[in-house]
Amino acid sequence: MTAGKSLHPFHARIERFDPALDALLAPEAAIEKLAEGFTWSEGPVWLNGELIFSDVPENTAYRWREGMTKAEVFLKPSGLLTPQPGFREPGSNGLTLDRQGRLLLCQHGERRVARYEGGKFTTLADRYEGKRFNSPNDLCVRRNGDIYFTDPSYGLEGINDSPLKELPFNGVYRVAPYGRVTLLTKELTYPNGLAFSPDEKILYVGVSDAAATRLVAFDVQADGTLAGERTFFDAHPLLKATDRGLVDGLKVDRAGNVWSTGPGGVLVLSPAGKLLGRINTGQPTANCNWGGDGGTLYITANMFLLRVRTLTKGAGW
């Protein structure tokens, strides 16, 4: 996976829709291509001085760090450990770290949330009320150790029509540190990326429904459950032939701005849901995350791994 001569057309730009974007992205900020040649790059996370990210259809996780001329295989297989039919996207998808800094993965093929440590996977959650999850997609961790994750059926052949699907809905769940799984909502058609506001009072969830792609917000209750669902940003009007992609992965910066993938690339939204600008990657864009010193945004956009320097830092840095 090269970082040199482009193997694919690459045309990216930063679009400014509001002067407030200048406090987040400098006028001279540039979008840099680091590697390419992936089938569908996803789930970037900064771990031990390098970026780890998924290529979901290829059942592979890669690593990249400064000075590397290409991304290297980190895990293969990453999401389906024993070959079997029925999966359109068998690999790992969303990645994050737990409170101890250990790697957590949404594994489509194993249909679980797992921890990777010491060369071994440990299942953290693979069932709700005795039924297998669809294909856990993305996850985030609350400060108390609770893991929140989404479970659409994108990993399965036929998606919602897959004969492997055991749950009749696509849910959002919480896994407590002691292992209990709680269903938080089953009302979203295709829940995808998710992230907390810096004070953890709001959970944002991306909905990757081609008929109504949007970001929704929930109030996080004292017991960790969700209430008050509302549309935070309707991205559907941005969909057009030249601006492809749905709301997918997202992250929040330390000031509460939401950096969400969506039509055209990464949408930069104020805490009030105002569209300030867009990192237009020219590609359907899956996810993003901060790395390095916390001020560099890494972006997984279709076949590319990209980065752009920001003037903020990710929440928690």
Shape: globular
- Radius of gyration over C-alpha positions, nearest whole angstrom: 18 Å
Task: Say which CATH homologous superfamily is assigned.
Answer: TolB, C-terminal domain
* CATH architectural name: 6 Propeller
CATH topology: Neuraminidase
Give the neighbour order of strands across the main sheet: 1-24-23-22-21
Mean pLDDT figure: 96
Tell me what you see in this structure:
- This protein has 317 residues and is mainly beta.
- It is 0% helix and 44% strand.
- The chain contains no helices and 27 strands.
- The strands form 7 sheets. A 5-stranded antiparallel β-sheet has the order 1-24-23-22-21, with no helix packed on it. A 4-stranded antiparallel β-sheet has the order 2-27-26-25, with no helix packed on it. Strands 3-4-5-6 form a 4-stranded antiparallel β-sheet, with no helix packed on it.
- A hairpin with a 5-residue loop joins strand 7 and strand 8.
- The model has no long low-confidence stretch (mean pLDDT 96).
